[in-house]
Amino acid sequence: MKAMRxxxxxxxxxxxxAAQPLRVLIVDDHPVVQxxxxxxxxxxxxxxxxxxxxxxxxxxxxxxAQRPDVAIxxxxxxxxxxxxxxxALAASHPSVRVLVFSMRDELLYxxxxxxxxxxxxxxxxxxxxxxxxxxxRVAGGRTYVSERVxxxxxxxxxxxxxxxxxxxPTDRLSDRELEVFELIGRGLATRxxxxxxxxxxxxxxxxxxxxxxxxxxxxxxxxxxxxxxWTQSL
Length: 234
Known about the structure:
Shape: globular
Distance between the termini: 17 Å
Number of strands: 7
Largest sheet: 5 strands, parallel
Strand content: 5-15%
Strand order of the largest sheet: 2-1-3-6-7
Helix content: 55-70%
Order of helices and strands: HEHEHEEEHEHEHHHHHHH
């Protein structure tokens, strides 16, 4: 993955980084991932882990106490959705730069994460050096996305995406509806989706109804067929 070439760093930013290491908060509910990130960041001379959390409530407490420069956030957390957390941080702690580090496909979620307030997006299968470069980039006030996401965003701005592929039906879905739609496409049943998202079956059924309405679908079978077809095309 290649990031866009960053502009020259300002003297003020260079002096700040030389004076003290970047304070990084890790937000992930997988202990192995947390441990790996702590070790990796701890090996960097210009970074230090100032805290870690696996829940939205814990994040807000750590930020108030530790004042991190960058928060590395997974989109799927044990107590809620990472996009909701990003929106909350943008409103309550705008000085904290959020970098998404997730298994979710960047073509589906990167633009939504940026709109929510994130400064960058890195998928977990990318090389470690990409994540480190992204931390430094967003800490400097810039944006980090992969080349394919950058091209997709540019195509959307210029109108080429709609002309080439047609507007994606998922653009009409809310963040949570998109997540449900993706999980349906990956073969999960309603109860499995409810357990995965920590919500009730009735809530998932409500999302299904809204998705069908927005996409003009008449039945659950049509919903499953479209979700599977769409997911396989990613």
